[in-house]
Amino acid sequence: MSFISASDRPFLEALSGLAYCNPFLPERIEWERRALGGQFKAAADVWSLRSDLPAEGVNVERLAERAIEVAERLRKKLAAGKKPAAGQNDLVLYEDVVLYALYEQFRKPLNRLLDAGAKKPRAVRFEAWENFSDRFAGYLNIPGVSFPSSHEPAHVLACLFQLRRAFEETYSHIVGGSMPAARLRAAVWQSIFTRDMRRYRRSLYETMGDVTTLVIGPSGTGKELVARSIGLARYIPFDPASGCFTENYAESFHAVNLSALSPTLIESELFGHRKGSFTGAVDDRQGWLDVCPPLGTVFLDEIGELDPTIQVKLLRVLQSRRFQRLGETTDREFNGKIIAATNRDLAAAMRDGEFREDFYYRLCADVIHTPSLREQLVDAPDDLGNLILFIARRIHRDEAEALATEAEQWIERSLARDYPWPGNIRELEQCVRNVMIRGEYRPADVATTDDPHDEITSQFRAGTLTADELLRCYCTHLYAQTGSYEQAARRLKLDRRTVKSKIDEKLLSRLKNMGE
Predict the structure, then answer these.
(1) Tell me: the pLDDT tens digits for 41-59?
(2) Which of 171, 193, 210 is a domain's end point?
(3) CA separation for the pair 325, 287 (Å, rounded)
(4) Is 244 within 8 Å of 123 (Cβ atoms)?
(5) Which run of H or E residues covers position 401?
(6) Does an H or E element contain 341, and which?
(7) Alpha-carbon gap, residue 225 to 169, rounded angstroms
(8) Does any domain span residue 102?
């Protein structure tokens, strides 16, 4: 008979799925439901930071309590000589519940590590190391039992700290309750751990820095937040001899805005230079590729604006991990990770000869698309208030609730319900600031195409139209073209009354003014 009882097995199997799933997709909630059964308390469809819900969901504490209790009970059975059933994966299930229990038992010390790393410009010491290693040994160094994964305590601690950082950076800084926002958080998680966290823990943790990440999306959609979440959550080894992690995660992220620099300054910023290599180079200077530690990250914002000659030099870095300072012939090695971002259509830039294809195909191993604010609000209109409150808390925490209420009420009174927020989250933030200062916000009169067809095509390509909006556009287009509900209905194979109900009067007026 197995040391795992029939009553514990469903919980362990569900907890195993929970521990290795992507926490930001709906599957996480389903695994919680399966693990807790009747104790599960329904909450949101996805994990997202909300002003009206406790952090990390309401079921976490119950899961932690039961995981710790089951892990301890199974440990005692194994120590007493109970064996796993032949042909069953019982020891893997035991390992999974142990790692889950260790994470929960040391959650507070791991949180203190986060705070310490943010405040101290040096390696971070884990004060609970002896306690952790003793408890680890109690769980996984059991005489007569050979575990399948051969875990080392220092590596397990490094993985747990990485999990804690990755969750905190992603959950706290990429907010929004819509599915587009949830998919963005899930994409960030995959960029850090890949889709197979077991394989990552076994071996990929050593090589993920070699993979370049490309973040694509409209301006103002949080591409740097995505980059920071990935860069600050890289694997950092733990050194048992010193009791410290080998690097401080908070010092490892370096952002460079390429569009703000001339080509010469970009080369100097990235690669460094020797004294006298160009006018104004009065001293030797390290570039960010030099400064970046092996476990660090260089974020290249606006990569689409990069001059082709510098694209060639960066291509060499991505291919060989080597570069030269300006004015030098000696090769230097870059061991960090590169994350790039752009709001440009790189496919069009390649067709126009402005962006090298070989460079693009070195960047695109891991691509993340950031959604527009419009996409998020189409999916979850009620999320606007939540986003406004988080922005207000960043602006003025003591007055956040009052400021958020003022801003939301002004938006409801003064802007159309379907206002597209062309500046995305950045525009929403400035709207809140304007309301705080002047009691109003005046959107910029951004020039748009006079042809509504171009506008619809652009929205179609961007994927920002709902199915109903797309149908309304097409019904209106055909009615304007034919001048008859009956003819439009025949072409669409719809009822005449349906076509009539879908006509967008504002769009129809624009089409008529064009003389269609």
Answers:
(1) 887 777 777 655 444 567 8
(2) 171
(3) 8
(4) yes
(5) helix 400-414
(6) strand 337-342
(7) 9
(8) yes
